[in-house]
Specification:
heterodimer, A: alpha/beta, Rossmann fold, four-stranded antiparallel β-sheet, 7 helices, B: alpha+beta, 4 domains, six-stranded mixed beta barrel, six-stranded mixed barrel, 27 helices, 21 strands
């Protein structure tokens, strides 16, 4: 599902080039779960963004769902994301001007699908927010907003889900429920899961943990998923 | 509905009020454009009607009296309404003044002239009495004053005693060309035979005034009559001709109003661009999420372009409605203020033009900030710092949009001003202003980063830091405020320039009496007499009568023969070659035949300037051709260049001259002006008379001065300019009103655009202000920080805007209005200070409420 080969990311700064990710390589099979962990500034989010096609690498290759991202332009990468990728962000990133339901169905509408409301409502029902579809993000709690984001992430039946600190802005109880939901949906739909987290407990629930430090993979741990 | 349409609609839900507020500037811009366009159309029609009043008819045909039956029949066949007049000079006897005699201009009239404008007499019934016929006369008021004549008294013309039925206050159609030679005496044409004065002779003229039937174009009639009566000396006067005679005043006004419309829309464009720039920045997170979810850059851009387009359309419709509304209520609002009646109508073509131009300008200006949406990377959803990607290089589309804006602005300016040169000049000046301000803004941001001393108080350093920190609005605000100041102040200065020109032309200080035929030995005593009468001579000039003998070495008689018989008094240029002139152009015969009244002096007057060559103030006739100066229209007619030689007949003696300068003369200034000016030393011994101009003031004073002069110097002819002055005053007062009204309207638009530009910054500053509050900043500290930031921006924008406006006004005055630029220091200082205060007030007001509420509450409601 995801093949990363000698991936490097360097930024040009006033003080000279700054390499934040060095020669990183790994592969992930369909349905697998991966946690990217490490201290702040270790390159976790950079790696996630590159894998999801949100940014361009300075070196190396990424193959996502059969597409080599380096050879695609911005619009082609957007099409790949729309077809195969789901996202959950630490700060939810709901569009404030859309209702919960409208936020959920955006990926389907971008594909030009007409009858997408039922799918949206079903997913909202699945995350326990069936009655809140017409509410705007500001009318929802943090946990509810993240559940809407999760529903949006799954609405286009993605092959791979990228989560950036999905529980980072949630309290313990809410984050536990959120994690349960992510893994349930992951199991139900056979989605590959890549998440960035500081939460050791959450990382341990993944089959594999890639530990970064200073832009380099320092450990690649594997366990059986619980 | 497509995704783009749906998303644009949904996304606008929370921002509609804000978008509507953004559209306010374009609404006002378009409203100004529509109102100005419509009002200008109204005004043009009113002025056109007034201009008809300048002639009193559509067409006036004048020829030597009597007109041939063929000509009279041909004119009569044109139909419409017609009136006849015979004009000649004769002596009138005034029994009330002991049988005193006075040369008057007899105007024997038949028909209901004037057809446009008024024939105002005192008492009002005099016109009707005149039209009824019989031995009645309407006299120039100065005659009544001068000879103590009252209504009901008798004056004698030829063999007939006429009863004075009133005095003429104003008659449409009278101008310097008609009524200046002598005081007028209007009598019925039917009463003429009884006087024994046939009114036929070398100086008698017959005139037929025609109000053409609807649909008949005056140009066609003139062309037909000219063709049919080639050999007859007829002169044709039309409204267009009279408008030209009015000088450039109306053209200036047209140009000015066009400039106002242009400025209003450009201000609207600036308002939209500045507002949408803030809007686009607020939408970065949403766009990044859309991009993450698979929206292409084009789709994301299209979402906001649809909103921008909708903003333009809503703005256009609302602006047009407001503009039309202003038009509708104008009659009530300006009732009693307008110096003349205007029929208010909605000029639909102007409405459509305003809306179309508004949408185009709005979209183009909206594209500029919205282009940034295309470049929001999806990574911005993960890291906000990625919203401004480094190393992407300049966006080529920005260049394209700038070019399109440049072309649209230049095109619009050319269309509005009706002149390629002037239009491109406006656009170029705007480009220069924009470049200067943008460069200055970058320099200020750079300087704020480098040169603010660490020792300055925190609030001052923070205020300066706001000028260079990320998300600063230095460039936007300086450009928007500076350009706004520049445009609005340019209007004010142009208005001052025009008004000063008008007041300088006349106002309360211009001469109102001209004395002609003053002999050489009378000029000294006349000066003394006039001083004693309290009306000292303002200007005087010697007049020498000349005839042209040869042009560039070719005798005039030869030239006239070559050119064939003269066809009419105002012969159009025919494609005929002349040895003396430019091939294919004909020299008007009258310019070769006429008697020139030239003067001589050592310098230029304030009503003329040299446009080619150099003026020579002194000459020695023995040292070769005398250097002379020619008025530019005569130079064109005679096809003269600097260096050409002319030979003149000066009192029977030939005199060789060379053109050393060509002058532009402001004929509309009531001063003794001349086509040909000789230097001192050339005509000193030639027989001459003098013309003298004085200001007498009230009609009673004018009459007193005239009486005193005529009594002392019976040969001197007095010309009372009061009536002419009144006409010109009335027209200029209309012009002044139009300028004031339009300028104020646009200034109001500019102020609102400037204010809204600052206010839109609220959404950008909320987070940092709240953060400062959270960290313990007092309201006063926040206020001071903002005071420094907006104060610096306001001062710089005001200062640079003022400098640009002064430069632009100087160019306008030089190349458009052909006047001296006015730049009153008080006005400039007020403008600079006003912009600073306005910027400060708007900036401080834009942060209202933020400091009064809990930070979290503010963040929730504002973001």
């Amino acid at each position: 599902m995801l093949r990363v080969d000698r991936l490097t990311k360097t930024y040009v700064t006033a003080a000279g080039p700054l390499t934040v990710l060095r020669e990183t390589s790994f592969e992930l099979a369909a349905g697998a779960t991966l946690a990217i962990v490490g201290p702040s500034g270790s390159g976790k989010t950079t790696l996630l963004g590159l894998c999801a096609g949100l940014d361009r690498a300075s070196g190396g290759t990424i193959e996502l769902a059969g597409a080599e991202l380096g050879g695609l332009d911005e619009d082609a990468r957007a099409r790949v994301r729309n077809a195969h990728v789901g996202f959950v962000f630490q700060n939810f990133q709901l569009i404030p001007t859309l209702t919960a339901l409208e936020n959920v169905v955006v990926p389907l509408e971008l594909r030009g699908e007409r009858e997408c409301e039922a799918a949206g409502r079903a997913l909202l029902e699945r995350v326990g927010l069936g009655a809140r579809g017409d509410h705007y993000p500001v009318q929802l709690s943090g946990g509810e907003q993240q559940r809407v984001a999760l529903a949006r992430a799954f609405v286009n039946r993605p092959k791979i889900l990228f989560c950036d600190e999905p529980t980072g802005n949630l309290d313990g109880e809410t984050s536990e429920a959120m994690v349960e939901l992510i893994f349930e949906l992951n199991r139900e739909r056979g989605t590959t899961l890549v998440l960035v987290t500081h939460d050791g407990e959450l990382a341990r629930r993944c089959q594999r943990r890639l530990r970064l430090k200073g832009g380099t993979v320092v450990a690649d741990e594997r366990t059986e998923a619980r | 509905m497509s995704f783009v349409g749906r998303m644009a609609w949904r996304d606008s839900r929370a921002s509609r009020r804000r978008l509507l507020a953004y559209s306010l500037s374009v609404v006002l811009g378009i409203a100004a454009l529509v109102a100005i366009g419509s009002f200008t159309a109204n005004l043009r029609r009113a002025i056109a009607v007034e201009s008809k009043g300048l002639l009193g008819a559509d067409l006036s045909v004048t020829g030597a009296a009597p007109l041939s039956p063929a000509v009279a029949a041909a004119i009569a066949a044109e139909g419409g309404r017609q009136a006849q007049e015979r004009m000649f000079s004769s002596m009138m006897t005034f029994p009330t003044a002991g049988g005193a005699l006075r040369l008057v201009q007899v105007r024997a009239m038949a028909g209901a002239f004037p057809f446009y404008g008024e024939f105002v007499t005192d008492p009002a019934g005099a016109v009707a009495a005149l039209r009824r016929g019989g031995p009645v006369v309407v006299l120039e008021p100065t005659l009544l004053e001068q000879f103590k004549v009252r209504v009901g008294d008798t004056v004698k013309l030829g063999r007939t005693n006429f009863t004075v039925v009133g005095s003429v206050r104003k008659i449409a159609g009278e101008s310097a060309a008609v009524g200046l030679l002598a005081p007028r005496a209007f009598i019925p044409l039917s009463a003429l035979p009884g006087t024994g004065l046939s009114g036929v002779g070398a100086l008698a003229r017959d005139r037929v005034m025609v109000a053409l039937p609807p649909g008949r174009a005056v140009d066609g009639v003139v062309r037909d009559l000219r063709e049919r009566f080639r050999g007859v000396r007829l002169s044709f006067d039309t409204v267009a001709e009279r408008q030209r005679e009015m000088g450039r005043a109306l053209t200036d006004i047209d140009g000015f109003l066009s400039l106002v419309g242009f400025v209003a829309l450009f201000l609207g464009g600036i308002g939209v661009a500045s507002a949408l720039q803030v809007y686009a920045r607020q939408k970065v997170a949403t766009v990044a999420v859309l991009r993450c979810l698979g929206a292409s850059a084009r789709q994301s851009f299209a979402v906001y372009l649809v909103q921008g387009g909708a903003l333009g359309v809503v703005g256009a419709v609302a602006g047009a409605a407001l503009g039309v509304g202003v038009q509708t209520v104008l009659p009530l609002a300006v009732k009693g203020v307008l110096p003349f009646p205007i029929d208010f109508f909605i000029a639909w073509p102007e409405v459509a033009r305003g809306m179309g131009a508004g949408v185009v300008i709005c979209l183009l200006f909206a594209l500029l900030p919205l282009l940034a949406v295309r470049r929001v990377p999806p990574l911005a959803a993960l890291r906000s710092a990625a919203a401004e990607p480094a190393g992407m290089g300049p966006d080529p589309w920005r260049v394209v949009i700038w070019l399109a804006i440049g072309l649209a602005v230049a095109g619009f300016a050319v269309v509005q001003t009706g002149s390629l040169r002037v239009g491109l000049g406006f656009a170029g000046m705007l480009g220069l202003g924009f470049g200067t301000l943008a460069g200055l803004a970058r320099g200020v941001a750079w300087a704020a980063r480098r040169f603010v001393p660490r020792g300055w108080p925190y609030v001052v350093r923070q205020g300066f830091a706001n000028l260079h920190r990320p998300n600063n609005r230095t460039v936007l605000l300086l450009v928007a405020l500076g350009l706004g100041t520049f445009l609005v102040l340019t209007l004010f200065l142009a208005r001052t320039t025009l008004l000063r020109e008008v007041v300088g032309t006349g106002g309360g200080d211009r001469p109102d009496l001209l004395f002609f035929d003053i002999q050489d030995d009378q000029i000294g005593p006349l000066n003394a007499l006039l001083r004693a009468q309290g009306a000292p001579v303002r200007e005087q000039a010697p007049i020498v009568n000349l005839k042209l003998l040869a042009l560039r070495g070719e005798p005039v008689e030869e030239l006239l023969k070559e050119q064939g018989p003269e066809r009419t008094a105002q012969t159009p240029r025919a494609p005929r070659r002349s040895r003396a002139g430019t091939p294919g152009q004909r020299i008007p015969a009258w310019t070769l035949r006429r008697e020139y009244r030239a003067t001589f002096r050592g310098g230029l007057t304030d009503t003329e300037r040299v446009v080619r060559g150099a003026f020579s103030g002194r000459a020695d006739p023995a040292a070769g051709p005398v250097p002379i100066s020619i008025e530019e229209s005569l130079a064109d007619d005679l096809q003269l260049k600097v260096g050409d030689e002319l030979e003149w007949d000066v009192a029977g003696l030939p005199m060789m001259t060379r053109v050393t300068s060509v002058r532009a003369v402001e004929w509309r200034r009531l001063s003794p002006n001349f086509y040909v000016v000789f230097p001192m030393g050339a005509l000193d011994d030639a027989p001459r008379t003098y013309v003298a101009a004085v200001r007498a003031g009230a009609p009673a004073d004018s009459a007193r001065v005239q009486q005193a002069v005529v009594r002392a110097f019976p040969n001197v002819t007095a010309i009372d300019l009061a009536v002419l002055v009144e006409t010109i005053d009335s027209i200029f007062s209309k012009v002044a009103f139009a300028i004031e009204f339009m300028a104020l309207f646009t200034v109001a638009t500019g102020v609102i655009v400037l204010t809204s530009t600052v206010l839109t910054g609220r959404f950008q500053r909320v987070r940092e202000t709240v953060l400062l509050r959270t960290l313990g900043a007092s309201r006063r500290q926040i206020g001071r920080i903002q005071f420094v930031e907006y104060g610096v921006l306001g001062l710089l924008a005001g200062g640079v805007g003022v400098a640009l406006a002064v430069a632009a006004n100087a160019l306008l005055a030089r190349f458009v209005f052909h006047a001296d630029a006015a730049a009153p220091p008080a006005q400039l200082a007020t403008a600079a200070l006003g912009v600073t205060v306005l910027t400060l007030a708007a900036g401080l007001w834009s942060n209202r409420g933020i400091a009064d509420h809990p930070p979290l509450e503010v963040l929730r409601s504002e973001t």
